Amino acid sequence: MTALLQHPGYDEEKLRRVAEQLPCREVQAGLLLSLMGEPQQYSYPSIFIYGHRASGKSHVLHVLLKELELHHATVSCVECVSVALLFEQVLLSFFGCDAASLLPRSPSLSDFVRIYRQQPVTMETSSHQTVVLNPVVEDNVTVILLSEIVWDKFRPNTGCFEPLLLHFPDYSKGELQQILSQDRHPSYSAEFYSSYINILLGVFYSVCRDLRELRHLAALNFSKFCEPLEEGKVKETDTHKLWRNIEPHLKKAMQTVYLREVSSLQWEQMQLMEEKEAGALRGLSAHTHVELPFYSKFLLIAAYLASYNPARTDKRFFLKHHGKIRKTNFLKKNEKTSNHLLGPKPFPLDRLLAIFYSVVDSRVAPTASIFSQISSLVTLQLLTQVSHDDQLDAPKYKCAVSLDFICAISRTVNFDIVKYLYDFL
Amino acid sequence: MDITWSSVKSIIKKWKVYDPHKRTISTVEHGGGSILVWGCVSAAGPGSFVKVEGNTNAEKYHQILEDNLIQSARELRLGRRFIFQQDNDPKHTAKDAQKWFKDNKVNVLDWPSPRQKVNTFYRQCVLQDELNRKILDSLLDFTRKCSSARQHSDWASQMRANEIPTAALVLGVNVPDHDITFQSLSELLHQSVTPHVASVEAKECGALKHLMKRVLERLMDTVVDDDEEEETEHTSTQLHKSVNCSLSALCDWYITKTKRSSPAEHERQQQPPVVIIFKDLEAFNPRVLRDFILICSRYIERLPLMFIFGIATSPSTIQRMLPHSVSSLLCIELFQSLSCTQHLATVIDQLILTPQFPFKLNAKVMQVLLSIFLYHDFSVRNFIKGLQLALLEHFHSQPLSVLCCKKKEALLNVMQLSHRDLERIRQLPSFKRYVEKQESQEQVNLITDDSHLKETCRKMIKGLHKYHKNYYPILKCLHTLTSALPRYPLGKQIRELHLTCLEKNVWENEDYQSAMKLLKMLAKDDLIALLQRCGEILKPVKSKKMKSTAFQLEELLTKFKQLDSNEEDSITSPIKNLQKKTDLFQLQKTLLEMNETRRSKKLSPFEILRNEALEFIDSLVKSHLSPPESQTLHEVCYYSSSATVRRHLNATPRTSIQAALSSPYYYLQNENLKTEDGTVSNAAPDICIAYKLHLECGRLINLYDWLELISTNLHLFLSLSFSARFIRSVSELEFLGFIKSTKQKTDHVARLTWGGC
């Protein structure tokens, strides 16, 4: 395998170390190396690497640059909210804080280039998920861009120097098996751990190919896997029994700890506990009940009705003497059963309040706190304001809760909401 | 009331209201910051203000009084006829100062209200802490566990992804209360876990940059360099040039911080975590939060970060806001706080259902406060604010509230009442009722003789205190008995029972009678358990009445227990005798008798005892749970103006606009505007007249007709200035939302309100 990573200009020993650290990514590493060429050669100015999460992009680059002792700076573009930060971080990691402090306030690109030129040494840049290109520095610099998204999304309208595109494919099941088996537990044999990884991948491979996540899950559940072994019930080679023990446990993990319904700390504690106690632990999404003040409940109900009923049907639902409205006329075909599929519609504040007053049994004074409740419902994200915040006159809202939620709410105030919904007539 | 004193740059914390009718001098005292000021104010104007050097003690206070008080009085030409008033600071009440007042013949008046108020507020803070103690403790445990888990270096923790420990703190929708919780949380964290705590709110973190900046500022306690904000530039540029708005700067800072402190405590290698509290998770921009978590996860190996999310609705919000790729970076644990109704129950129990505080609310005010809580905001803090408002209003508006204090002080204060105050007592409706019941000689005495009235007042105050002392334990007993019944005839919560008791005689209530009927059907074990609980409630109460009732209850309970042993020899069944009789007539007769006995079935000893117990309870209720209106002088302690409270706490903007427009006198208080109801005087502002006349129009209003209508009403000729005034009032009405321009007819406006035409 090491034969793949042969390149003139670099030390054999170093290349071997690199190859050791990069299992299943030899092809990509070799390609990168050949793109960069020998240390004294000029390299291609920009390379764009893309691939899914945890497919080894940063790892490969990091290992290459570090082991081959290439001068580099790594910058995260999420972190650099302004250009100044980006420049500063690049200068800082190249030349230390002296150069970085030379940057003026709100620097431009030419400032950056000027300071860059003043410095004696120049080497290669690798930038993490960056879109900012700086090929202006006339020097031996390679900008390597890492991203989870394809290049087409980043291409600026004005056109730019096209980078070389390099794709990192997902790891296959076999590759995952090979990589994960490497970090075995020191007190168990490699075969034993590899069989564990095999079982783990059998359960999780269909939902998750993220190496980082899989490694995390493997570490969390390994103690449970070893349990029968520790108790002396089975031998290491008895894979079937081990599988029978761990399989339901892993399935449960997929529904809880993988989705972060239960924290990994709690999961570890649960493994220590007895089976029956463990069932008591409820995940995050099990707590859906929300306690609301009385009028807030009715405001939310009114908002839901306003969002899902066509405005012309309000008369039929909320007026006491609405006169005769013919059913055939009332139920238009295209509107029927479609409102819940289409999602909530925006409604003005006046309509919300009109429905609210007719829905609430008792007489309610239009006090300031009714209005403040509307805005607090907005901050709780049970309602969303459709129009802009600045619009004081006739703001529009949408209801952002589900049918189940509103049914639960209306049950607590003895209000049969289904009777008032146009879709369910 | 906070008043900044610009020249000395200190904030004066207390400011006492002085009564312009009395010629009193009050003190203003306590400087915030470094300078202490003593000053006095009277109806005639402010007296001297002096700076006080160093700490004040009783001696110094004496000296200040000596130097300044008499001097000020002389300057203000008050002579010796003033009343001095101060709060009950220990140095004020020291014997030295007391003696000085006596020697110099200065009358001193105590003012109970500020202290009471502070008292309640203080208690509230303590309460909040206690309520949240449990959840805060578990949170602290969590933080400690997380920070210690980081230090392990076994295989599993090496392999595990580095997650950011996160506590999801579900607090309920009562957002105003959260502040105190977070405050005490961050204080506790400061004390016991880590010095690095930063809390951020959504409204100050619109973009990632701002969030980052706030976090850094709060952790590092410095001004962070930022490109945009010009104000901070002067101070920050020189000092913190290198401090940039990024987490790497924070990392460096953290490393230097821990390095500096580590040699001192070498054994403890543990690094204190950096806690970031997101006060209102729902309001955060999900994008900002996502990016921030992504960035933080890159630094987690160097910086032991920890998050606390304050959640108002439900924990599933986290999953709604953060995609799996981000939430997989967190290790989320859930903490649920008390529900707000439980919270309220504790507050009511501690603040209202106790004889400790002489200040009380009557039924209507209580109702208003509770309905605001239940219907509108669920906020305990606002409830307590309402209580404080009622307190303030009571002491402000009711002169007889001097008597609303602890029993001893109240008795003293009675003796110091002036003739005018006594007249006020005579005007009280409850006192009038009392007088009517007395004999004629006594009536005359009460109305004419001041000293006799004072004596009776003392008795009444004592009675009132005794009433309160007995009322609450009995209320709690009744609640324990009735809350166990099916369908809660007298309410599930004790506050509901309290309200019915405040309103009228509870024993005349239908629900009470049905509750008693249900109690009469209780099984033995249940009844005994309930009575035992009642006994536990009554035991700690220190009043003679309650002691004796507790004793009687004990006796009843022992009787119940004795029943167990006597149970065997129960009544012999009459059916046994039946077989002996063969005669048809006799048989008929016995059967009839049996029917009779079945109807008026003989009571078993248990049933007799049960009835006895319930009658005992009933008598207790009748003697102690009468509404406060039946007590004489209840006006002293009970605040009754529910309208004021409602107006202050639950404003109705629409109604007040209506009131202002239809009767401007209500707000302007100008004699010219005073009119018979329904009409508006010509002197009223234009907008009022325009409003009044627009009510008489139809749905569409012709502007010219409207103008003419107004001009004829005001007997004014149409002129340019008049039409300008008219246009102004029309646009004002449009701004208030009564009319709007319409496209149907060009010179018309449409009415937006109904009625009137």
UniProtKB/TrEMBL annotation, chain A:
<dbReference type="InterPro" id="IPR027417">
    <property type="entry name" value="P-loop_NTPase"/>
</dbReference>
<dbReference type="InterPro" id="IPR048866">
    <property type="entry name" value="ORC5_lid"/>
</dbReference>
<keyword id="KW-0539">Nucleus</keyword>
<dbReference type="GO" id="GO:0006270">
    <property type="term" value="P:DNA replication initiation"/>
</dbReference>
<keyword id="KW-0547">Nucleotide-binding</keyword>
<dbReference type="Pfam" id="PF14630">
    <property type="entry name" value="ORC5_C"/>
</dbReference>
<dbReference type="InterPro" id="IPR041664">
    <property type="entry name" value="AAA_16"/>
</dbReference>
<dbReference type="InterPro" id="IPR047088">
    <property type="entry name" value="ORC5_C"/>
</dbReference>
<comment type="similarity">
    <text>Belongs to the ORC5 family.</text>
</comment>
<dbReference type="InterPro" id="IPR020796">
    <property type="entry name" value="ORC5"/>
</dbReference>
<protein>
    <recommendedName>
        <fullName>Orc1-like AAA ATPase domain-containing protein</fullName>
    </recommendedName>
</protein>
<feature type="domain" description="Origin recognition complex subunit 5 C-terminal">
    <location>
        <begin position="292"/>
        <end position="421"/>
    </location>
</feature>
<feature type="domain" description="ORC5 lid">
    <location>
        <begin position="193"/>
        <end position="260"/>
    </location>
</feature>
<keyword id="KW-0067">ATP-binding</keyword>
<feature type="domain" description="Orc1-like AAA ATPase">
    <location>
        <begin position="21"/>
        <end position="104"/>
    </location>
</feature>
<dbReference type="GO" id="GO:0005664">
    <property type="term" value="C:nuclear origin of replication recognition complex"/>
</dbReference>
<dbReference type="GO" id="GO:0003688">
    <property type="term" value="F:DNA replication origin binding"/>
</dbReference>
<dbReference type="Pfam" id="PF21639">
    <property type="entry name" value="ORC5_lid"/>
</dbReference>
<dbReference type="Pfam" id="PF13191">
    <property type="entry name" value="AAA_16"/>
</dbReference>
<keyword id="KW-0235">DNA replication</keyword>
Automatic annotation (TrEMBL), chain B:
<dbReference type="InterPro" id="IPR020795">
    <property type="entry name" value="ORC3"/>
</dbReference>
<dbReference type="InterPro" id="IPR040855">
    <property type="entry name" value="ORC_WH_C"/>
</dbReference>
<feature type="domain" description="Origin recognition complex subunit 3 winged helix C-terminal">
    <location>
        <begin position="654"/>
        <end position="708"/>
    </location>
</feature>
<dbReference type="GO" id="GO:0003688">
    <property type="term" value="F:DNA replication origin binding"/>
</dbReference>
<comment type="function">
    <text>Component of the origin recognition complex (ORC) that binds origins of replication. DNA-binding is ATP-dependent. The specific DNA sequences that define origins of replication have not been identified yet. ORC is required to assemble the pre-replication complex necessary to initiate DNA replication. Binds histone H3 and H4 trimethylation marks H3K9me3, H3K27me3 and H4K20me3.</text>
</comment>
<feature type="domain" description="Origin recognition complex subunit 3 insertion">
    <location>
        <begin position="415"/>
        <end position="641"/>
    </location>
</feature>
<keyword id="KW-0597">Phosphoprotein</keyword>
<keyword id="KW-0539">Nucleus</keyword>
<dbReference type="GO" id="GO:0006270">
    <property type="term" value="P:DNA replication initiation"/>
</dbReference>
<dbReference type="Pfam" id="PF18137">
    <property type="entry name" value="WHD_ORC"/>
</dbReference>
<dbReference type="GO" id="GO:0005664">
    <property type="term" value="C:nuclear origin of replication recognition complex"/>
</dbReference>
<dbReference type="InterPro" id="IPR045667">
    <property type="entry name" value="ORC3_N"/>
</dbReference>
<dbReference type="InterPro" id="IPR036397">
    <property type="entry name" value="RNaseH_sf"/>
</dbReference>
<feature type="domain" description="Origin recognition complex subunit 3 N-terminal">
    <location>
        <begin position="127"/>
        <end position="403"/>
    </location>
</feature>
<dbReference type="Pfam" id="PF07034">
    <property type="entry name" value="ORC3_N"/>
</dbReference>
<keyword id="KW-0238">DNA-binding</keyword>
<dbReference type="GO" id="GO:0005656">
    <property type="term" value="C:nuclear pre-replicative complex"/>
</dbReference>
<feature type="domain" description="Origin recognition complex subunit 3 winged helix C-terminal">
    <location>
        <begin position="723"/>
        <end position="754"/>
    </location>
</feature>
<dbReference type="Pfam" id="PF19675">
    <property type="entry name" value="ORC3_ins"/>
</dbReference>
<comment type="subunit">
    <text>Component of ORC, a complex composed of at least 6 subunits: ORC1, ORC2, ORC3, ORC4, ORC5 and ORC6. ORC is regulated in a cell-cycle dependent manner. It is sequentially assembled at the exit from anaphase of mitosis and disassembled as cells enter S phase.</text>
</comment>
<dbReference type="GO" id="GO:0031261">
    <property type="term" value="C:DNA replication preinitiation complex"/>
</dbReference>
<protein>
    <recommendedName>
        <fullName>Origin recognition complex subunit 3</fullName>
    </recommendedName>
</protein>
